[in-house]
Design brief:
This protein has 156 residues and is α+β, with helices and mostly antiparallel strands. The chain is 29% helix and 33% strand. It has a 6-stranded mixed beta sheet with strand order 1-2-3-4-6-5.
Length: 156
């Protein structure tokens, strides 16, 4: 992913927001903010002419002890869902993150987002718990399923 991809990446992010089941976010940031809050490594896009999906990592903490722990974001354009784009993104993200020394990947997923839960399970993530009533969204409490994947290579 490059800064030039941001328009397409942002549009896909907004599609995810519109589903109501991808994120607590209600708007997409400008590039500078997004760039500042995501790790500079492992930023991916899938293209077939246009950008069809993207994946990136956010640090879970700035503390040095957590330097190998990152939160996963995977978004697929509506027109490309169910066509293997998410699988390609997440499997590449896992491989690249291990190469970069990331030993734990985590994802917070709304229970209603069954496709994302299955995608993460297929990539080796496991459910470690449910964070009940973690946040309010449009006047209702939302649970978040916490999933994680521990590397068998990085951080040993």
């Amino acid at each position: 992913m490059t800064p030039q991809d941001w328009g397409a990446v942002r549009a896909i992010y907004l599609e995810g927001i519109a589903t109501g089941n991808a994120t607590f976010a209600t708007s997409a940031p400008e590039w500078e903010e997004w760039d500042r809050t995501h790790l500079p490594l492992c930023r991916l896009v899938v293209r077939s002419g246009a950008v069809l999906g993207w994946a990136a990592l956010s640090p879970v903490s700035r503390r040095q002890v957590y330097r190998g722990v990152a939160e996963v974001s995977v978004y697929v354009a509506e027109r490309a869902r169910g066509k293997g784009v998410g699988t390609a993104l997440l499997s590449t993200l896992v491989t690249n993150s291990e190469r970069e020394g990331i030993w734990t990947l985590q994802a917070g997923i709304f229970p209603e987002n069954e496709a994302s839960i299955q995608l993460h399970k297929q990539a080796g993530f496991r459910i470690v718990g449910v964070r009940e009533k973690l946040g309010r969204d449009l006047g209702r409490w939302r649970d978040v399923i916490l999933m994680e994947r521990r590397s068998v290579r990085a951080g040993l």
